[in-house]
Amino acid sequence: MSRQSPRQKCKAATVSWDETPRTVQVTMVNQSCPFCELPAERIVNQNDLAMEIRDGYPISPGHTLIIPKRHIGSFFELSKAEVGAMLELVTIAKRNLDTQLSPDSYNIGINDGPHAGQTVPHVHMHLIPRYQGDVKDPRGGVRWLIADKADYWSDEGSASS
């Protein structure tokens, strides 16, 4: 695996999300997609269909992004080969982070669509190393995205279901 620039370039600036869940329409204009024009030095690792970079706005040491080389907005529109390539890289990245930083755990996630928090219309997977004590109570993990529904284990947080 080498440190080359991504194979494909795109120009994407305006994004309109249609009413079909998880479908993105990209209008090609003059602004650039930050993931399609990455400088070669940002790429930590890559294979034929995907690449690994460190997040430009990390929430923990080692916060990593796995990005398909093809510009596409939704994880659910990736080919099986692209999904496999991303999973291959996230597995390698995790092993490397284990050696380099020794995190205690990981969160892995994809924000797919604007209502899920996706701000760059090029699908990408977050690999977020977690460290003991980085938050007061890590139980629930990604469930805290909707705080009112996160705490299902205590009397105060449980809702009748």
Which key terms come to mind for this protein?
161 residues, alpha+beta, HIT family, subunit A, two-stranded antiparallel sheet, disordered N terminus, disordered C terminus
Characterize this entry briefly.
The chain is α+β, with helices and mostly antiparallel strands and 161 residues long.
Number of domains: 1
As laid out across the biggest beta sheet, the strand order is 3-4-5-7-6
**Which sheet architecture does the biggest sheet show?**
5 strands, antiparallel
Oligomer: single chain
The helix fraction, in percent, is 10-25%
Q: In CATH, what is the homologous superfamily?
A: HIT-like
The helix-and-strand class reads alpha+beta
Low-pLDDT segments, ≥5 res: 1-30, 157-161
Mean pLDDT: 81
Order of helices and strands: EEEEEHEEH
Rg over C-alpha atoms, rounded to the nearest angstrom: 17 Å
- List the total number of helices: 2
Work out the strand percent.
15-25%
What's the CATH topology name?
HIT family, subunit A
| Alpha carbon gap, first and last residue | 49 Å
Number of strands: 7
Structural summary, described in words:
It is a single chain. The chain is of the alpha+beta class and 161 residues long. It has a single domain, classed as 2-Layer Sandwich (HIT family, subunit A). Helices cover 16% and strands 20% of the residues. The protein contains two helices and seven strands; from the N terminus they run βββββαββα. The chain has helices at 80-101, 147-150; strands at residues 14-17, 24-27, 43-46, 50-54, 64-68, 105-109, 125-130. The chain has a five-stranded antiparallel sheet with strand order 3-4-5-7-6, with helices on one face. Strand 1 (14-17) and strand 2 (24-27) form a beta hairpin. The longest helix has 22 residues, at 80-101. Mean pLDDT is 81; it is low at 1-30 and 157-161.
